[in-house]
User: Fold this.
Amino acid sequence: MKTANKTVTATKLVKDALEKAKHFKEYNIFNYLNEEGALKKAAEIDERIARGEKVGKLAGVPFAIKDNYLSPEGETTASAHILEGFTSPITATCVEKLEAEGAIMIGRTNLDAFAHGSSTENSYYGPTLNAYDKERVAGGSSGGSAVAVALDIVEFATGSDTGGSIRQPASFNGVYGLKPTYGAVSRYGVVAMASSTDCMGFFTKTPEDMDLLMSIATGQDPKDMTSLPDFYEKSEVKKVKKIGVIKDFDNDSVNIEIREALKKKTDDLKKKGYEVVELDMPTLKYALAAYYIIVPAEVASNLSRHDGVRYGFRSENSKNLESLYENTRDEGFMPENKRRIMIGNFVLSSGFYDAYFLKAAKARTLIVKEYEEAFKKCDFILTPVSPNYAFKLGEKVNDPIAMYLEDLMSVSLNLAGVPGLAVPVGKTKTGLPIGLQLVGPRRSDKALIEFAKELK
Ligand code: GLN
Assistant:
């Protein structure tokens, strides 16, 4: 990526990015543009360069953050009405690390409210449009970040992936999107969705950029107890020989052009001397059901802090404390947020806990084991990211089950904690991007990114 130097100033890079952001306004990518703050930081970096001081690895590189990453610039809204007016006193660890290397945050991007969704249509601020077709969805929930990179407004953007929210919009917009190993990048300072599956990651235009960002952002954070001691640089880039493909994902429920793209890539890999093995992973068919029990349960707990007292929006029409809670939540949450809170509290309730939550937790353990077994037979797995390419705006928004089915191939990775990288591999006949997903064992992130170059 282009960093600032004596001839190309940080101010120029930031100005260009801000200009492009405004040029593409109709795509509804940004919830907030950090114009003043970004230009001030750029001027500081330019002064340091002029003085001949050492600058970071990302000096003057404009980037965007998903609007669920906390930072004091603008409001952190998570695209939810209930957080409107909330200014964060803290900065997410991930953002802090990027900024310490000189990267400059130019804006906060749109998402499905609280990251609940697969299209960015659940945003309080309206949908983001697909970079390749304005009548289609950006994917989600990190739609704004994906489109910001795809339209070349910024060099990279942050995202969060609880069940596919980086990989799916990356594939819908033809960019790279990484969901790292669970715990690789600190979750501190990102609005929690489901704490046991939330992963922080990035959208980039190249695997090389992804590698650079991971080398900066990973590492243990005392503020996130689930963050892993740094393994990224130390992880050996092992010799990859065998690539697995999942038998169950090759059927009519997956779009034919996506299946053909997968077939073409596995044929190419065979020609390059890799062995392609077919994997039987029968437990994966329970991943979606388990995910849509475990995640709402955690969502219900995490969202209970939003009561109109401590953060953001408060309904004005309330007569007493109870109606204050009720009205604030009713007016402040989107329908999909409410649906998850209801499902989550239901599956955790005393009468149903064993039948739903406990059973889903057991299924999750089986899925973890199934991945462990699979990685005894191959080094990496190659699958579609989702069963379809970018669909039309409005097509699934009133059908939650159809929307959940979009996540069929992405959620099992989050349940198992393994890394997944969405790689752009081509276009449909009508010119829409197709992405495939490389999956590796835990802590194989660096090797996974390296291997993506083989799919070019
Ligand atoms: N689409 C999935 C969901 O709605 C994933 C969301 C995410 O990864 N944040 O739960």
In short: The first helix runs from residue 10 to 23. The pocket of glutamine is lined by residues 115-118, 141, 160-165, 193, 295, 407 (CB under 6 Å). DSSP finds 14 helices and eleven strands in the chain.
